[in-house]
Design a protein that fits this description.
It contains no helices and twelve strands. By secondary structure, the protein is an all-beta fold.
Length: about 170
């Protein structure tokens, strides 16, 4: 028997809300139209990361690697005369990891999930169960892209089942 930890899909998975915009276009002669774009995931769908924990390993403090990596890309464009600063934040509080069994109200804190950045452009870290957890900020005109792999800390004994939740990434300029 496997105890599954999942975030968002019916399979054991971590859901990262995905918003995709059209390709970035830069106008010449310092007349760039100010705009920002973000892409979280590998396509136009909500991407997931799965963690499967064998029943005999639940809560043994041995981290469990996620099933895949997630691409995160943020761009900001503006003229040199009117630069902008963009802020990438994470919401891992609003949709917590909850056991989807109708007879259970068990939860797992998102603080059990961390990620490692492949290149460090969008840094490694862990979810802090906050609505607006700061991740990175940078000024125009820049593009930051990285690939994150996820890990479940596996520090607590949890009720068996599939846990689902959602993490939302927000890229904004004030």
């Amino acid at each position: 028997m496997l105890a599954s930890l999942s975030l968002w899909s019916s399979a054991a998975s971590l859901s990262l809300w995905s918003t995709t915009v059209d390709a970035q276009v830069f106008n010449m002669n310092n007349r760039a139209t100010p705009r920002i774009t973000i892409r979280v995931g590998n396509n136009n769908n909500v991407n997931t990361v799965s963690f499967s924990v064998p029943a005999n390993a639940v809560g043994n403090d041995t981290p469990v690697a996620g099933s895949n990596r997630i691409r995160i890309e943020a761009r900001i464009q503006a003229t040199a005369a009117n630069p902008l600063t963009g802020f990438l934040t994470i919401d891992s509080f609003t949709n917590p990891l909850t056991n989807n069994s109708p007879s259970s109200s068990a939860t797992i804190p998102f603080t059990e999930i961390s990620w490692t950045a492949r290149d460090g452009d969008i840094p490694s870290g862990f979810y802090q169960e906050m609505v607006n957890q700061p991740l990175v900020s940078f000024q125009s005109s820049q593009r930051y892209r990285d690939f994150h792999t996820f890990s479940y800390a596996n520090t607590g004994v949890i009720e068996s089942g599939t846990y689902e939740g959602r993490v939302t990434y927000t890229w904004a300029i004030p």
